[in-house]
Amino acid sequence: MVEEEQRHWSNILRKRIANSKSERSKEENKAEETELLTKYYSEWRARLDKEQSYRTVPRFYYRLPAEDEVLLQKLREESRAVFLQRKSRELLDNEELQNLWFLLDKHQVAPLSGDEAMINYEAYLKVGEEAGPKSKKFFTSRVYAKLFHSDPYGRISIMQFFNYVMRKVWLHQTRIGLSLYDVAGRGYLRESDLENYILELIPTLPQLDGLEKSFYSFYVCTAVRKFFFFLDPLRTGKIKIQDILACSFLDDLLELRDEELSKESQESNWFSAPSALRVYGQYLNLDKDHNGMLSKEELSRYGTATLTSVFLDRVFQECLTYDGEMDYKTYLDFVLALENRKEPAALQYIFKLLDMENKGYLNVFSLNYFFRAIQEQIKLHGQEPVSFQDVKDEIFDMVKPKDPYKITLQDLVNSCQGDTVASILIDLNGFWTYENREVLVTNDSDVSNTADVDDT
């Protein structure tokens, strides 16, 4: 770059000297040329030195050790472990959290707001000074403003602030815990990494005490599948640690630490023992030939046994199978999609099956292809067939796609009717539920009114 600039200025100077009317010797011309070149180069260099911001840009790329660089890999692992241990020591431990609570309670400012103890900004800063250096980052004006909710005395709730601190400490502890399983140190977990994390977490969850050790591998597979189904939509085989922390799945998993978790909470929690046993039990019940895999015929009995054969054909065409049969991991994806039809990840799974020609949209042909199977089932039950034109118009009215002739995945997600459309096209029971929705609502109202009368 410097040489190019020198040549540029040299050419300018040569032309300038050549055009000079005065006759000079070669030595004089050369001297003037050198003098001017030195002057202009010095000015340019001084200006460039001021603008060289790249000199202050920190290094941001570090090559990872290759597989055969065993010593470098070991050094990297040890340095990461030391780093994570240091980060862990920077967090508040149980004793320090207890001390923080005593200080907050000691400096509360009257009067109470309902049943909650409050603290003003002056006392808040005083607690920050007494709590020690580890707590300093929590006692800032930004945190105080974030927790302030129109108290007439300008105070914040002590309990809300303490919960905020607890949540932050928990997040950092969990991030460090997950990072220990990040073997590559790249900020994400592979399937095997998350399996190891959950396997070692099981003994710390009282709600899983009753699980047989022989079931651990199936439980871990069931738990890990939910993370990867929803957080890895592109099926890359890895999930960012920050995505795991941002979703609610880890909260649901760690909820199993509660020894008094209600039966309702257990049933609605995918990670609970009853839920995992339910899903695995269904799989075993479907597996009539007991070979550990599911054929299309066996899967057809799933749920209310009303999924259409056309849809099941697509499942076995698109999903991973072994000699035409489905294993437990593929079955879990199937269950997660059908049990969570409102979720974008589940709709993406179902949409891929409905999009037979892989065009990225559903047209009238696609809808007709799948609904014909519903019509055939209706006839088998001795019911009057339903007009496809009516159903097609209702679907387009529900979804309101950008293109009046094509329904994309994004259209289904935006409409918030994707689960209904999917049910109409793949499941006879889902279609009848939609078709008789007004009757069902009326019956529910009648039952509710009867209950009210009985109570009276």
UniProtKB/TrEMBL annotation:
A cellular component annotation (GO) from this entry: spindle
GO process terms (BP): B cell homeostasis; cortical cytoskeleton organization; microtubule cytoskeleton organization; positive regulation of B cell differentiation; regulation of dephosphorylation; T cell homeostasis
GO molecular function: metal ion binding
Signal peptide: none
Domain PP2A regulatory subunit B'' EF-hand: 183-259
InterPro entries: EF-hand-dom_pair, EF-hand_13, EF_Hand_1_Ca_BS, PPP2R3C
Keyword tags: Calcium, Cytoplasm, Metal-binding, Nucleus, Repeat
Compartment list: Cytoplasm; Nucleus
Domain of life according to the entry: Eukaryota
Annotated PANTHER family: SERINE/THREONINE-PROTEIN PHOSPHATASE 2A REGULATORY SUBUNIT B'' SUBUNIT GAMMA, SERINE_THREONINE-PROTEIN PHOSPHATASE 2A REGULATORY SUBUNIT B'' SUBUNIT GAMMA
Protein name, entry field: Serine/threonine-protein phosphatase 2A regulatory subunit B'' subunit gamma
Organism ancestry: Eukaryota, Metazoa, Chordata, Craniata, Vertebrata
